[in-house]
Write a structure and sequence with these properties.
Structural class: alpha/beta
Shape: globular
Helix content: 25-40%
Number of strands: 25
Distance between the termini: 13 Å
Low-confidence stretches: none
Radius of gyration: 23 Å
Mean pLDDT: 95
């Protein structure tokens, strides 16, 4: 079987101006980054057209070490929609270097359902991740300098919230001490991975350059010795940080293996952040296409919940339908089958694993959404097991389609695409049923997500978590804006619970909230559940060991 890179090289890419022209965008209106990538100015978004476009969310069952292929399905569905005569584009997140060199090796789809040029997209792309990293750490340096320069005036922060970031999985940097030598101020800090940066969330939620700067100004960096919030606006550097992010604000336009348009912008993880591509990229695609496919990271309990409760709530988006991706391998793992045997026929394990799928279906229907399940087919899948999944969906009154876009491109997703179009034509989605009301308490919002979406029996807050909540109330008790913030729970992606080893559909568990972080720039409350960390580590054998250059060509990004 050909590798993703080999397939990508078979595709003769079209100049990015031609891809823009397909959308109705004049080539002179885009800003090319080389021959095959471009930035598209935010001014081209048309809110009237956005309201007429049909937005489709692709999500998945809880991921396993066997993988699910959600990005491949998102791209494949878009190819399939174009194949049946619909004007469609896909809006995706940008890959992070951490997972690319750690576990994944790449995140631009697979087989004949990829976004191209895949090597550039997986690596430095148009520099958005570097801009976020640089802007974030510039704030860190300016904050440290402010503390140093004003210490003799009695200025100090009793607590510093702002850490540093790096787009590398580096567990050694989770907790560090700075200022040990020279004239610096000694302090404890640490690094998160760039996708967890509040600036990344701001980039993905901002609606304009002015909104970007407003949000940056509102970032709370810490608490002063007299109990007041200290913000970026107090540093007086919001303009400088906006300048660093100005180019990054514009969505990126590329193409698929079948030369259809693709917008790729922003890259927050769904297990430690809100897991959605930018509002601007989504609206840009919706301004020029009748159908737009977007994805939310990891399983529907994480990315999809945040897509609805955070992105759609704040951006006023109304999706038409949800596609849930499953594989027989993933279902078997959720059914208790050992990973070494998941490619073998096992109807019993498959049926047991359907409990995980069905809980996700129920959750998506709870948001008022029509649901279609698509099975990502592999060469070892047998018709008898596919029929088990099909019947399960039919019994639930849910659409079902097999996806073979990996091997066949758009032709392999025609069944899914037609099912999507037919369902949208027949079923009108209800206004989104959010998990919690906007004016609920922070604890109430967290508990509703944990109990209604995850299925937890109880929620507990650690001493640190309770202390953080008390501090938020003490310092911001008159701030009505904060009372309306949605919650973004950082939790393992492998389980509905906070225990990564509990596959399937666990019940009766307790979610422990270890920490609560106030993000006034991205306008959300981040709650850390269980042992979740916002700086991942590398596996025993990272993918970096297999990425190299052979005869002038990059290998290992697949």
């Amino acid at each position: 079987m050909k590798t993703d890179i080999q397939i990508a090289r078979e595709c003769e890419l079209k100049p990015i101006g031609e891809i823009a022209a397909q959308l109705g965008i004049a080539p002179e209106e885009i800003e090319p980054y080389g021959r095959y990538m471009a930035k598209v100015p935010v001014s081209l978004i048309d809110e009237k057209k956005v309201k007429k476009s049909r937005l489709i969310l692709v999500t998945a069952i809880s991921p396993t070490k066997a993988g699910i292929g959600k990005t491949t399905v998102s791209i494949g569905l878009t190819l399939g929609l174009n194949k049946i005569g619909k004007k469609a584009a896909v809006a995706l997140r940008e890959p992070s270097l951490g997972p690319c060199f750690g576990i994944k090796g790449g995140a631009a789809g697979g087989g004949y359902a990829q976004v191209l040029p895949m090597e550039k997209i997986n690596l430095h792309f148009t520099g958005d991740f570097h801009a976020v990293t640089s802007a974030h750490n510039t704030i860190s340096a300016l904050l440290d300098n402010y503390i140093y320069q004003h210490r003799k005036e009695g200025f100090s922060l009793r607590e510093v919230y702002w850490k540093r970031v790096l787009d590398v999985n580096d567990r050694a940097l989770r907790n560090v001490v700075t200022g040990l030598r020279g004239d610096g101020v000694v302090s404890e800090t640490g690094f998160d991975i760039t996708p967890a940066s509040e600036l990344m969330a701001i980039l993905c939620l901002a609606t304009s350059e002015d909104d970007l700067q407003r949000r940056i100004e509102n970032i709370v960096l810490g608490i002063t010795s007299d109990g007041k919030p200290f913000r970026v606006s107090d540093l007086g550097v919001a303009g400088a940080i906006t300048v660093l992010l100005r180019d990054a604000l514009s969505p990126n336009l590329v193409q698929t293996t079948e030369h259809t348009p693709a917008f790729i912008h922003g890259g927050p993880f769904a297990n430690i952040a809100h897991g959605c591509s930018s509002v601007l990229a989504t609206k840009m695609a919706m301004s020029y296409c009748d159908y737009v496919v977007t994805e939310a990271g990891f399983g529907a309990d994480l990315g999809a919940e945040k897509f609805f409760d955070i992105k759609c709530r704040k951006a006023g988006l109304q999706p038409q339908l949800v596609v849930i991706v499953a594989t027989t391998q993933g279902l078997k793992m959720h059914g208790g089958v050992d990973i070494e045997h998941i490619k073998e026929p096992n109807a019993k394990g498959l049926k047991e694993g359907l409990k995980n799928l069905n809980r996700h279906i129920n959750n998506m229907q709870g948001f008022g959404q029509p649901v279609i399940v698509t099975l990502n087919r592999f060469d070892f899948d047998i018709d008898e097991e596919i029929d088990i999944v099909r019947k399960n969906c039919e019994d639930l009154g849910v659409g079902f389609a097999v996806n073979e876009a990996f091997l066949k491109g758009g032709e392999g997703a025609v069944e899914l695409a037609q099912k999507v179009v037919d369902t949208i034509g027949k079923i009108q989605p209800l206004p989104i049923h959010f998990t919690y009301p906007e004016n609920d308490s922070i604890e109430g919002k967290i508990e509703k997500v944990c109990k209604r979406i995850y299925g937890a029996a109880a929620v507990e807050f650690t001493k640190t978590g309770k202390k953080r909540l008390e501090a938020i109330r003490e310092i911001f008790d008159d701030d009505k804006a904060i009372a309306r913030y949605p919650v973004c729970i950082a939790k393992t992606q492998f389980s509905f619970s906070a225990d990564s080893t509990r596959y399937g559909s666990p019940e009766g568990f307790t979610i422990r909230i270890r920490d609560v972080i106030l993000n006034c720039g991205s306008e959300m409350i981040v709650a850390i559940a269980g042992d979740m960390l916002r700086m991942p580590g590398l596996p025993k054998s990272p993918q970096a060991e297999r990425i190299t250059i052979v005869d002038g060509e990059i290998e290992g990004l697949s």
